[in-house]
Amino acid sequence: MKPTLTLTKKVYESVEFIGDSSVPSLGEMINVQNKEKQENHLSEDEGLFIGYGKIAGCFPYKEKNQYTTHLRGKEVNVAVLENKYLKATFLTEFGGRLWELFDKKEGRNLLYTNDVIQPRNLAIRNAWFSGGVEWNIGSIGHSSFTCEPMNVAETVREDGIPILRLYEFERNRQVTYQMDFWLEEDSDILFCRMRIDNRNDEMIPMYWWSNIAVPEFDHGRIVVPATSSYKNSINPSIRKVAIPIDNEINQDITYYNDIDAPVDYFFDIEENKRKYITNLDETGYGLLQFSSDKLRGRKLFSWGHLQGSDNWQDILTKEAGKYIEIQAGLAKTQYECVPMPPHTAWEWVECYTSLKLPPEQVFNNYSDAVLAVDCVIEELWGKYNLNDLVTKTKHTIGKKKFDLKSNASGFGGLENLRREKQGEPLISEYLEFTRQDDNIKDWITLLEEGNFDNKDVNKVPQSFMLGEEWLKILEKSSENEGIDNWYVWYHLGIMYKYYKDYKKALICFEQSIILDITPWAYHALAYLYIDMNAIKKAVKYATKAIQLKSNDYSLCESCLKILLNNEYYGAIIECYAMLDKSLKKVGRIKMYLAFAYAHTGDVDQASEIMDSDGGLMVDDIREGEVSITELWILLFKKKNPAVKEEDIIIPKKYDFRMH
User: 20 to 30 A from 237, CA-CA: which of 88, 382, 421, 620?
Assistant: First the structure.
């Protein structure tokens, strides 16, 4: 069977839509990959970049915080690569995720494919769902594109082999990235050729991890060619442990089903070793992922088997069961970016295939299991030397122009337009980017006319930008055509705040308000005053923003969070009374109110919120966030003041603890 590529639609049980926040991400969010890791027990010889490239939030992207848990059958755009051995399905409108890799010989899916597309708050931009292979670039954590459409293109090789390309422009690092996928006619391997192109004049922090969800087999084992690992668990530091026997807990962690609590193991593979990881079931069958040397990191993530971690897995799926993640990255760990030189392209090939070994080779001595997989890899390497393949395909695939089939965002087109006007090289000569996108219309107007159009103060800001070039454009506008435009001053203030020039940001927001009173400037002022440690002023402007836009969930939730974090419980109760009726029903808003009642002595009111309608549900609990757990404990203790800590049994649905 000649390989085929089909662009089509499939029906999946999914949420109806995933929408953007109305306000920019101005505060620091919980990010379990991005926590402070500087307290570590690593030697000076490890050479890791722990903490390098860390960002506080998802700016300039907006959070994707508009979704519910209501599911229905929905048509989703997909791309399907197929030959006589494999069928690979990609969700082109969800970051290009490899959703299913079906082994036609065995009649089995090599990946963990969820039975629902159910967003939860785990990604950089909030909405994330489990399953498949997620491609993560740019900033530490789950990708900004995980719930975004990709540019989709295709070509056909001279021998008739079709190749799928998915690509985008990543705004935080200002780079293009592309993923080219194909199947050979007589091979059971999915080839994935990746390319990141940095056209900037300076070094940038770069991050890439391919997050591979695979089934958590009852008696499964991972095999990776390493004898040590960088470990992170509930202990807030990175340390190095031996594998397969983790010397801290005296446990063979390659048998992941025995792991108790959520944990990351980043395997320290020697430079001269082949880079691979595999997940095998009790029969010795499973997925093998291997790559060229550029992709040097490998990881195991397990949710563990505590009540809280079981709860997380339950809310991410319907009936698809439990999974682990085996991952591959540019760096040794996920707590670092790697310095990427200016005017540099990084390329690699990663491969996905099935592996079947005799159980006695897999489940006895670990070194024997590694040796068995090594032998398979060396045989594959003799046929497909991936390091050579990267070089050979640079121009025949990597830098070849494909036929564009569907567009993603217009931000790549906007960046090209800016570069054209300022006499700079384009971000790519062979990747096409549209400018037909409502999210960039304001910025095109600014580029072409030196000013934004007059903006209705109640209309949600389209999008946000960063970069010294855009800052200079806004500064010039504020001195000329845009001097009387509140929207110019607002965006200029946002950029100054991002770059921590708080004095200039304050001047801009105040000037914006002089020209027109808007909830957006009040919201920005509230977060600016938090940064300036002027808490009372922050509370004042957060309250003003809610008064002006009491029907906007994103703005009101963001402002109420300021009040909660700074213990202005009475203000929360007052602001809740102002909210639109629809917002008062939202779980997170109700949780904030329950906290306020609990801390102001009205335990009965707080308990009523907690217990009504079958129990308070907060759909977008953040990974690492235990606020609803803490609320339940707080109320339980207030109603049972003599209770001992060890006697408190938290209901599973409120337990999001990772320890």
Answer: 620
